[in-house]
């Protein structure tokens, strides 16, 4: 190979490794000096190779980060969202949702249906060490009742961690809960009564609809774009015609679509709702798992009247089994605290103290979060390639901005419930989009969980799903 074309050989080798998934979207490629050392070529040659990859749209140069694999847009178009706004409807699919969740948790089934990260990705040794330390140092406190609002040191550290992303948050406002599910349920109870309508994104997180079904509430579904979420202008138009008691949304790394709302849209949404005295409940479960260089701001950061009730959890970032979440309910805090006291007295002492210790060791926690985000981003990229390769023509696919969930729209003729049932026969769990709405709007949609270190087993699972989808989709 002539000297002038040595860089093309280097570029081709790197391009092949990107296509094969060795380097996923967002991964940083070797530095110029490292690549020079590996190849034996000069700096000019390896730099020219990177410029060639940049010309092809495979990598992008970022200050202080070097060359990074470009995520770009998937070759498949984004899923469509139905455009109409139906009348408020009472959710009725809790039984189906419960069966889906149970299947996703069955050990012998490939877990593509839930939303929990793989336990192997959690900092198990770190948590074990901190647990031993807590038990050794504070056994009396661990075996007794905790403060009803939660361990004061944990509340203080959560409040400090929220600085800059959620405005001012007082530790006294926080209530520690059994995961974000309890936090959202308590907040809904605090701002609604049976028969009320609640504005939700469409598609919605199925767990919200289950809670609303149990509380006797109605869901007013407003379509959320797969790339940026709710349109504040449309929300305002809807509210001019329909009355709601509250709004419940996932603005950061949405479940199931994976979008992050723009700051200007967040601010406009909060202003539109609070001007009408409509409380806003935000679930920030996945906020820590955004892929961007900056942690996205919460709706609460734009609240001036105490009308935003923020909920989050450590289930997706530390350990789902701890069942540890929190609610910062603004002007409704005391009501939420009373409901929590009456429902369960408090949350387990041991796990609260362990998580407080994790937050005390912030650099270690941040390293873990970086690893988690990188793993999820790689898994999402590989899963997306699998869907593009194996699913029928006409399939549409989300481009998540964080987290580990893919939202997939099957072509006309597809049926997510039938795909769910037939996948179970092959020992694969998925989540049918039917349970993400009170209507049949998402019957052709499925949600896939990519919260694992992607391997051949998961890639084979996607291939099998695509094969099943081909059998009943008319191409």
SSE arrangement:
Elements: H1 6-19, H2 32-39, H3 43-55, E1 59-62, E2 66-69, H4 94-104, E3 110-111, H5 124-137, H6 139-143, H7 152-161, E4 174-177, H8 179-191, E5 197-202, H9 206-214, E6 218-223, H10 232-239, E7 246-249, H11 263-275, E8 280-283, E9 308-313, E10 325-328, H12 333-344, H13 349-360, H14 362-390, E11 396-397, E12 405-409, H15 416-425, E13 428-429, E14 431-432, E15 445-449, H16 456-472
Parallel strand pairs: 3-13, 5-6, 5-7, 7-8, 8-9
Antiparallel strand pairs: 1-2, 4-10, 9-10, 11-12, 12-15, 14-15
Short summary:
The chain has 475 residues and is an alpha/beta fold.
Mean pLDDT: 90
Structural class: alpha/beta
Largest sheet: 7 strands, mixed
What radius of gyration results from the CA coordinates? Answer: 23 Å
| Global morphology | globular
The beta-strand count equals 15
N-end to C-end Cα span: 45 Å
Return residue spans where pLDDT drops below 50 for at least 5 consecutive residues.
none
Major sheet: arrangement of strands:
4-10-9-8-7-5-6
Q: Compute the number of helices.
A: 16
Work out the helicity level.
40-55%
Beta-strand percentage range: 5-15%
Q: Could you describe the 3D structure shown?
A:
It is a single chain. The chain is α/β, with parallel strands linked by helices and 475 residues long. 42% of the residues lie in helices and 13% in strands. The protein is built from 16 helices and 15 strands. It has a seven-stranded mixed sheet with strand order 4-10-9-8-7-5-6, with helices on both faces. The protein has a four-stranded antiparallel sheet with strand order 11-12-15-14. Helix 5 crosses helix 13 (349-360). The longest helix has 29 residues, at 362-390. The mean pLDDT is 90.
